[in-house]
Amino acid sequence: MGTFPDLRKFGGADAFLRACKPRVAIELLSDKWSMLVLGALLFGPRRFGELRRMLDGITPKMLTRTLRSLERDGLLTRTVYPTVPMRVEYALTDLGESAAGMLAVITTWGAEHAEEILAARRAYDARPPAGETPVPA
Amino acid sequence: MGTFPDLRKFGGADAFLRACKPRVAIELLSDKWSMLVLGALLFGPRRFGELRRMLDGITPKMLTRTLRSLERDGLLTRTVYPTVPMRVEYALTDLGESAAGMLAVITTWGAEHAEEILAARRAYDARPPAGETPVPA
DNA sequence: CAGCATCCCCACGGATACTG
DNA sequence: CAGTATCCGTGGGGATGCTG
Fold first, then answer.
1. Local mean pLDDT, 10-residue blocks, chain B (137 residues)
2. Residue A36 to chain B, least CA–CA distance (Å)
3. N or C: which end of chain A has fewer CB within 10 A?
4. Residues B40, B58 contacting (CB under 8 angstroms)
């Protein structure tokens, strides 16, 4: 069928149904802020406020929730320095770095095909309401 | 920092803020069913009912919505055969196949790291409520 | 067969205000 | 500084029933 890695090697579509292994990756990608946070941490360890400023538009609540979730999954570490004022630093783990690697793949794909997709979208939206049904046979 | 492709080449975190190009990929991934449908179509063109059966748990409404969205983005084609009873076939485009390639990357990553993540999750959940704060310096 | 229409729920996530 | 607490609107998506 194609030149891409054969999905069936990994279980194909079945691999995604129900609560199966690779689903964790999908959940990660599906979350609005997770990959953004990982991306931000690629620049090195960052503090709460720094991340907040890097991720324009994120609220403290969502940043906290996202960081907790990523920490729980072992994608980043949270280190508290009990200074005054307090200081907390977040850093990617190896696992987190590899997850960010996925982000790179996705970003690349998106950058390469965005124009094509947007063009298809325009064409679709511009086509006649009641249409000629493409009838090959 | 790592061995993965350098995100900054693509604009880094900034590349994701607001409505920028690579975001279309994220939207694709974020949708609950889109990548599953693409994965199913990797096995070849399929009819509505076939897809419905392959994607256990999907409702007709969501299948329709997902297919329409993917068609609009040029990831698959929809061909109507006006037979009796009616027959509609969905097939990946080249663009759709390349998108499914992303799925392979993600699936692989998920399969390789799922156990690690689940272990981290168990460890996190099992740790003492009020905790020893890791104080390096 | 391949959908479309409708109702409805609740979880995601934003805004705002407060605390150790 | 680094969060927590609370309220609340939106819409994603399930269930059900009907149609060309």
1. 41 48 80 90 96 91 96 97 96 96 87 92 83 48
2. 6
3. C
4. no
